[in-house]
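S.,

Sequence below, as promised.
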Amino acid sequence: MTVTEIAKLAGVSKACVSRYFNHGYVSEEKRNRIREVIQQTGYVPAKKLQTPVTEVKQTIGVIIPKINSESISRMVAGISQVLNREGYRMLLADTENNVERELQYLQSFQKDELSGVIISATIFTEKHHELLQALGVPVVVLGQNIPEYSCVYHDDYGAAYAMGERLLSLDRRHFGAILVTRQDTAAGEERYRGFTDALKSRGMDIPEGRIMYSEFSLESGHDAAEKLLSEYPDTDAIFCATDSIAIGAMQYLKGIGKRIPEDVAVTGIGHSRMTEIVSPTVTTAHLFYKTTGIEGADMLLKIIDKGIDMRNKLKMGYEVIQQESC
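The prediction came back faster than expected:
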């Protein structure tokens, strides 16, 4: 018998069998299948397969949507801090917000002997779930609350509600919003709900026509603001789903001679460094991205160490950053 044959009989990968013999993470179901095959065959592993735990090369796969995004780079910095401290290597995959590329990386990860995976994705499809399950290693999701996995995510609803309250405090009457796709549960749907619920708390609503959708970029925020003001020139308050969108919208507003916040008040979410540099500075909600990365990496390593995934959920808070745009 060989490791390859044991893996085939148990219906698992060779890497999974290797982790089993080296006391790494293996799900209870697969552990039982491997144990059963070993008992049936009387297989005894060669000593060279049983590497001391301290000598096992431990690598964590990390999938992110966009490395040049400040929020994502802050998360990666947090992940890296923990993995470096604990002697793990990081295999980083940047998908550039491309769902197909996410799936390709998940498929390629099946060939690597990973100890675990951390993933931050905008949209989770059935194919995502299928490939994550096939990896056979513990998974922690950052930025989204996905029931099937341990997660560290933000209070997107609360942050958006707070920004809505800031705009309402100025007694504005003609609201607009620039959002991201609501297929993105966190930055899309939750922030939409938070903002609109803030309006409803004051007996107000926002017509669908006053809601524009944007990519996660300055340019797209600029174009969305242009469309909004062209169709609704009376707009005097704009809620933006991200700081980048808010800054792009402000560039357009200044370009057409609008004063911020006197003519149009603007809010963002995230608290990127750019919000402190642009003029006027941007009222926003600080999200703890680096801490999210730290907590997510710590959560994953605890799962690996204990061999049990309790599918823990950790929701991070937010802090209102009052600045000049609102």
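The chain has twelve helices and twelve strands.

Coffee later?
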